[in-house]
Design goal:
5-stranded parallel sheet, FAD/NAD(P)-binding domain, 6 helices, 303 residues, single chain
Length: 303
C-alpha cells in the first residue's frame, strides 16, 4: 500500500492498513506531520480538553503508524500513473514506487496574495507558518492576513511573541469560529483592520512594511512591520493525480463515500478532497475510511 502524504489523513490510513498486516509506505516531502504540525495549538481534537500542540499531536500519530510497521519516506510525489496490469506507478523526486492501491492524502498548499514584493521576500519576512517563523520576530510588529480559523489562531500565537499584531481581513466579518473571534477581539496586542487588503509588501533585503487599503473607503496607509504571515486560503495538491481523478472547479478531488475516485484502487482522503469541513478530526475519519476501502479492494484482487 502506498500512502501519499503524511498528515492526519495519511498517517491514519497508514496506521489502519499496517495494523491489518499490509506493507505500507508513506511518502511525504517533510517526513510526516502535514499542516497540522505547523499549528501552535489544536483545541478541537477530541481527547485533549486542554488542547495539544500541533507538532506534538503529529509526532504521536507518526509514532503510532511506525509502531505497526508503516515506513515513512521523505520524498515528494510528482506524478501517479496507472499501468496495464492495474499497478500504480508513483514517481517521486528520489525514487519510483509501485503498488496495486494508492491512498492520496497530499493536502493543500497556502494560497498567495499575489502582490508586489511577496515573492521576492518569501523567507525574508513573508511566511505561511507562524509556528515555524514567529519566534524570529519576537518583540517586533508583525501582520497576519486572513479571516479564517488558521489566521486567528496564529495571530493569537504571534501575540505572545510580537510587540503588536495587525490582523488584516478583506471583509467586515471573520469566517472563523466564534471562539477564535472572541479571543482575538479580547487580545490587547491584536489590532483589527477589517475591510482591508494588502496592496504591496515593502523592503529591500527583508520585510520593512506593507501598504494596506480599505476596500470600503479607498483609504491607503503604510504600516511598518517586520513580517507578514499569509493565511489567504489554500489550493489542493491534486496535480500529480489529475489524469486519474475527477475534480471540482477549485481542483479538489471528487470522491465517493468510501473515499474512492473514478480510478479503481485510487483513494483520496483529507484536505485534498472535496468536502465541507477541513479539520484534523475529519481528516482522521477520511483516512480510516479510505484504508478500509483500499484493503477491501486489495483483498478482492488477491483472491
Amino acid at each position: 500500500m502506498i500512502v501519499v502524504g503524511g498528515g492526519p489523513a495519511g498517517l491514519t490510513a497508514a496506521l489502519y492498513t499496517a495494523r491489518s498486516g499490509w506493507k505500507v509506505i508513506v511518502l511525504d516531502p517533510m517526513g510526516g506531520g502535514g499542516q497540522a504540525a505547523t499549528t501552535d495549538m489544536i483545541h478541537n481534537y477530541p481527547g485533549f480538553p486542554q488542547g495539544i500542540k500541533g507538532p506534538e499531536l503529529m509526532e504521536l500519530m507518526t509514532e503510532h503508524a511506525r509502531g505497526f510497521g508503516a515506513v515513512i519516506e521523505m520524498d515528494e510525489v510528482k506524478r501517479v500513473t496507472l499501468g496495464d496490469r492495474g499497478v500504480f506507478s508513483v514517481s517521486g523526486q528520489a525514487s519510483t514506487y509501485e503498488s496495486s492501491a494508492v491512498i492520496y492524502c497530499a493536502g493543500t498548499s497556502p494560497r498567495r496574495l499575489n502582490v508586489p514584493g511577496e515573492d521576492r521576500l518569501v523567507g525574508k519576512g513573508v511566511s505561511f507558518c507562524a509556528t515555524c517563523d514567529g519566534p524570529l520576530f519576537s518583540g517586533r510588529r508583525v501582520a497576519v492576513v486572513g479571516g479564517g480559523d488558521s489566521a486567528l489562531t496564529e495571530a493569537q500565537f504571534l501575540a505572545r511573541l510580537a510587540s503588536q499584531v495587525i490582523l488584516i481581513h478583506r471583509r467586515n466579518e471573520f469566517r472563523a469560529g466564534l471562539y477564535n473571534q472572541k479571543m482575538v477581539r479580547e487580545n490587547g496586542k491584536i489590532v483589527l483592520r477589517m475591510n482591508s487588503v494588502v496592496d504591496e509588501i515593502h523592503g529591500e533585503r527583508y520585510v520593512e512594511g506593507i501598504t494596506v487599503r480599505n476596500v470600503k473607503t479607498g483609504e491607503v496607509e503604510k504600516e511598518p512591520v517586520s513580517a507578514v504571515f499569509v493565511y489567504a486560503g489554500s489550493s489542493p495538491n491534486s496535480a500529480p493525480v489529475a489524469d486519474l481523478v475527477e475534480t471540482d472547479d477549485s481542483g479538489y478531488i471528487v470522491t465517493g463515500p468510501d473515499m474512492s475516485t473514478k480510478t479503481p484502487g485510487l483513494y483520496a482522503a483529507g484536505d485534498v478532497r472535496r468536502k465541507s469541513l477541513r479539520q484534523v478530526s475529519t481528516a482522521v475519519g477520511d483516512g480510516a475510511t479510505a484504508a478500509f476501502a483500499a484493503e477491501t479492494y486489495l483483498m478482492g484482487r488477491t483472491i
